[in-house]
Structure formats: structure tokens, C-alpha cells
């Protein structure tokens, strides 16, 4: 999504863990480029999520945020849903769940989710880890987590 307005930010601070920070301009030819997906409906902009939070599975776009929202009704542990390359489907969905927890209870809850989920949003695998790596803002460091799992 690209936004144009006279009240947009002039700079974005990029924090580099070992080098400090830098100021970067987010404006390109008068437009602020975002990674958001959205649409204009009447006088409103409706945001549907981030570009990198959608993956293509068997030719269909699947929202990782939507899968997480649906899975939240079945899990009490902290978790995240990630995608990994899959030769047949394009991408496969995995859940990474913070433990410790009862394996039997967790398996039962995952199976309940799988039964009600659409075929494209079913998990291909799930993993339990001691802790989820978090950024300073409390967001899961997904690349680090994928690397830890060997993907």
C-alpha cells in the first residue's frame, strides 16, 4: 500500500543492534510505501494485514494472522504460526508453541483445531520450544525461530 499526505513522517529510525541507528526516508516519489495490504472502502482505508504475513498455498493466499487468530481459541500457550517452503504446496504452515505443557492436552487441542480448519489453513507440523525469541517490542523473531528449528 502507498500513502500520500502532507502529514507523513519525514524519517524512520532503523535500529542496528551493533552499529547504533540510522535515519531513513520512507518517501519514494511523494509516496509512503508500506508493507500493509488494504483497500479503500468509501472514505475509509481498511487494513487487511501485512504483505509478509500472507503466503501462497496451492495457489491461494493464506493469512498467517488469520490462522493464528483461529488457533488462539484452541491454545492457551503463547505461540506463532510460520510458513516453510513445501515442494508440493508452495508453503506449509507450522505452529511453534511455548512450553512446558502437557503433550496430551496440546495434541488434543491441535487435533480439535485441525478438524474445524479449512484444508489450506491446517497445520502441517507443530513444535514445542522452551521459549519464543522476542524483539525489544515483544514481537516474535520469526527468522531466528526458523533458524533454531533448522529451516
List keywords for this structure.
151 residues; alpha+beta; GMP Synthetase, Chain A, domain 3; 2 domains; 40% strand
Question: Can you characterise this structure?
Answer:
Strand 4 (27-28) and strand 5 (31-33) form a beta hairpin. This protein has two domains: 2-51, no CATH class; 53-148, ANL, C-terminal domain (GMP Synthetase, Chain A, domain 3, 2-Layer Sandwich), CATH 3.30.300. It has helices at residues 64-72, 103-116, 142-148; strands spanning 2-3, 12-16, 20-24, 27-28, 31-33, 36-41, 44-50, 54-57, 60-63, 79-86, 90-98, 125-129. The model has no long low-confidence stretch (mean pLDDT 89). With 151 residues, it is an alpha+beta fold. It has a three-stranded antiparallel sheet, with no helix packed on it. A three-stranded mixed sheet has the order 10-11-12, with helices on one face. The two termini are 30 Å apart.
Task: State the strand order across the main sheet.
Answer: 1-5-4
Low-confidence stretches: none
Number of helices: 3
The top level CATH class name of the largest domain? Alpha Beta
Strand content: 35-45%
Overall SS class: alpha+beta
Total strand segments: 12
CATH superfamily of the largest domain: ANL, C-terminal domain
How would the global form be characterised?
globular
Radius of gyration, Cα only, in angstroms? 18 Å
Average pLDDT metric: 89
Secondary-structure element order, as H and E?
EEEEEEEEEHEEHEH
CATH fold title of the largest domain? GMP Synthetase, Chain A, domain 3
The percentage helix is 10-25%
Query: How far is it from the N-terminal to the C-terminal residue, by CA?
Result: 30 Å
**Number of structural units classed as domains:** 2
Largest sheet: 3 strands, antiparallel
Q: What is the level-2 CATH architecture name of the largest domain?
A: 2-Layer Sandwich
Amino acid at each position: 500500500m502507498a500513502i500520500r499526505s502532507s502529514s507523513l513522517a519525514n524519517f524512520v529510525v532503523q535500529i542496528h543492534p551493533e552499529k547504533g541507528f540510522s535515519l531513513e526516508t520512507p518517501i519514494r516519489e511523494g509516496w509512503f510505501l508500506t508493507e500493509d495490504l488494504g483497500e479503500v472502502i468509501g472514505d475509509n482505508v481498511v487494513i487487511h494485514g501485512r504483505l509478509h504475513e500472507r503466503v501462497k498455498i496451492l495457489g491461494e493466499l493464506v493469512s498467517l494472522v488469520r490462522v493464528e487468530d483461529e488457533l488462539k481459541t484452541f491454545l492457551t500457550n503463547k505461540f506463532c504460526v510460520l510458513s516453510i517452503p513445501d515442494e508440493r504446496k508452495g508453503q506449509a504452515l507450522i505452529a511453534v508453541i511455548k512450553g512446558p505443557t502437557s503433550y496430551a492436552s496440546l495434541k488434543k487441542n491441535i487435533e480439535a483445531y485441525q478438524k474445524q480448519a479449512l484444508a489450506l489453513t491446517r497445520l502441517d507440523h507443530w513444535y514445542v520450544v522452551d521459549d519464543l525469541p522476542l524483539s525489544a517490542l515483544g514481537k516474535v523473531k520469526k527468522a531466528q525461530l526458523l533458524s533454531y528449528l533448522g529451516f
